[in-house]
Amino acid sequence: MRSIIIASTSTIHGSGYLEYLLEELKVHFKTVNEILFIPYARPGGISHSDYTAIAAKAFKTIGKTVKGIHEFDSAEDAIKQAEGIFVGGGNTFVLVSQLYKNNALTAIKNAVNSGTPYLGTSAGSNICGLTMHTTNDMPIMYPPSFKTIGLVPFNINPHYLDPIAGSTHMGETRETRIKEFHTYNTQPVIGLREGSWIKVSGKTLTLKGTLEARIFEQGKAPYEIASNSNLEFLK
Amino acid sequence: MRSIIIASTSTIHGSGYLEYLLEELKVHFKTVNEILFIPYARPGGISHSDYTAIAAKAFKTIGKTVKGIHEFDSAEDAIKQAEGIFVGGGNTFVLVSQLYKNNALTAIKNAVNSGTPYLGTSAGSNICGLTMHTTNDMPIMYPPSFKTIGLVPFNINPHYLDPIAGSTHMGETRETRIKEFHTYNTQPVIGLREGSWIKVSGKTLTLKGTLEARIFEQGKAPYEIASNSNLEFLK
């Protein structure tokens, strides 16, 4: 049975790395002793080893060990054999470039569809959507494609930000950007605020966390959905 | 002699489209009667015609007519024959995709190097840099390359935004994003705040407007440069 957590962020303001999710992760990775961490997104350009150490420290508090994918000879084999997978945040362009380079996208898809529990945060959540067209990241690397895994039949916009009232900045709001996306693309987008996540259990998709999420569908006005909403209508 | 204006934004808060630049544009387009407008970036998904009408309205106030590139059979020929060129803002991914599709990048480079005066705002400024790796836009379209015209030997970050003091949002600041860019890329980046522009006259590059700009060089701490600074050191 598929078991996936797609989180807006790894860290909420004023709290440690993954801290707000740990109770959920205890259940999610219940049968898992060692988690395969994919640090390819390298937030701030951090090394794969240093990033893996951060993930390992958080998971240690719930009794799990973590091994970085860069420690294996074959990324594909590491994914095939993993008990559980965690893809961390950072830059989605860097992440997707590295996943393509290591033939990891199909391997992750197959593993997750076979029941390997998956956790994605931020960039690691973007890749669960159909494409990475709705990432917020700066395009610092050119990936061979914007197509991602498609574990859910829509796109993710993590770290969703509401327009800032009274802002004098002329750059586009997040909502304007997603509206532009729908000029050229048809799939729905879910704007996940920091602290929200999507829980996939088999065929059931649920919005979790305390906040509402914002839904963008082509040709419709955007709207809010409540926490614990079923997301299966979204395709 | 090359004559280029690379502006952070078309519009500053509380002012009309191009209004803050009109005095400068009178001089910049002094010898020009009709300006070729390239509306490919389509802000908010606006049509080429509607976007051209906005540009035409602004330029009418200084006695210039505007014709959209979509009104010509050949974009390349339109650029070759243009008296002056204006590439408007919107989405850089859409703009660059359309420029490649219409073989317009080389045509613009040749025209500008032959002396055709050029104005770029926002996305139209991004393409003056070496690459579009430092755009702020959402990647809603997949261009065949991130390589842009390289009218200047560095990258542009338009709408540069300082970190917001006291923000609780966990998404990256602009400075963090540009630092990540320098993990994988070597060229300097200029963060142009709204209201700033770069004026290129022959070989002279100058920062214009009243604000400072922020310079990012690989392996150095970012620093500010004053208005009217010469930018020729930046390469």
UniProtKB/TrEMBL annotation, chains A, B:
Keyword Glycoprotein in record: no
EC number: 3.4.13.21
Pfam families (UniProt xref): Peptidase_S51
Domain of life: Bacteria
GO molecular function, one term: serine-type peptidase activity
Statement: the UniProt record of this protein carries the keyword Zinc: no
Alphabetical list of CDD domains matching this protein: GAT1_Peptidase_E
GO BP, sorted A to Z: proteolysis
Keywords annotated in UniProt: Dipeptidase, Hydrolase, Protease, Serine protease
Enzyme class name: hydrolase
Family matches, as SUPFAM superfamilies: Class I glutamine amidotransferase-like (SSF52317)
PANTHER family assigned: ALPHA-ASPARTYL DIPEPTIDASE, PROTEASE S51 ALPHA-ASPARTYL DIPEPTIDASE
Family indicated by similarity: Belongs to the peptidase S51 family.
Official protein name in the record: Dipeptidase PepE
Gene name of the record: pepE
